[in-house]
Inverse folding.
């Protein structure tokens, strides 16, 4: 079970999210916070694996506390779930090391997909979020570079996700997935997904 701290200043939102999260066998809500100060206090005490927090709550903003939380709890993933998509907030979240940024109107299954991907080590922001750009690229031992998005898709290919499943997990269209898959095949010099998987594992681009 993945231990999760849930933060929102509305009890009804916390109850709904808790029901979604605990409907699976993956997540367990070990604490709840109704404001930013309580979030920081409980995070430091409980040391959750994931923090799922509203953006705008009374007290200290998650945007002001995320860098320190990342410093104090380097293994904890932070996901913001919000109704606001202002660019300034998004950039601050990105610069602060927030791992995921999703909207409150996101369907429950996609919220769970986001948590699953972040748990695996990826950073996921919804398409409407205009990020400054990828923080890093993946480089294998033969010097081939992949963007962060290509690395995400490559890893999901290894895990036997179909193009449709990848699109749903990453909030992108199937056509966009196909474009990235074509780029992966071109960069690896392979003819199909199976060959690319073997190549990627051998060269260290992806994990098994």
């Amino acid at each position: 079970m993945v231990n999760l701290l849930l933060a929102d200043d509305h009890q009804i939102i916390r109850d709904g999210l808790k029901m979604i999260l605990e409907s699976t066998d993956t997540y367990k809500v070990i604490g709840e916070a109704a404001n930013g100060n309580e979030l920081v206090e409980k995070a430091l005490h409980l040391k959750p694996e994931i923090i799922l927090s509203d953006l705008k709550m009374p007290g200290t903003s998650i945007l002001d506390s995320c860098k320190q939380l990342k410093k104090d709890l380097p293994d904890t993933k932070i996901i913001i779930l919000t109704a606001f998509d202002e660019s300034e907030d998004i950039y601050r979240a990105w610069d602060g090391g927030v791992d995921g940024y999703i909207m409150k109107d996101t369907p429950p299954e996609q919220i769970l997909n986001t948590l699953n991907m972040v748990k695996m080590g990826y950073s996921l922001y919804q398409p409407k979020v205009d990020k400054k750009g990828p923080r890093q690229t993946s480089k294998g031992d033969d010097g081939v570079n992949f963007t962060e998005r290509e690395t995400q898709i490559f890893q999901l290919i290894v895990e036997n996700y179909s193009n449709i499943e990848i699109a749903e997990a990453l909030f992108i269209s199937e056509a966009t997935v196909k474009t990235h898959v074509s780029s992966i095949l071109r960069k690896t010099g392979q003819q199909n997904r199976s060959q690319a998987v073997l190549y990627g594992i051998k060269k260290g681009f992806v994990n098994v």
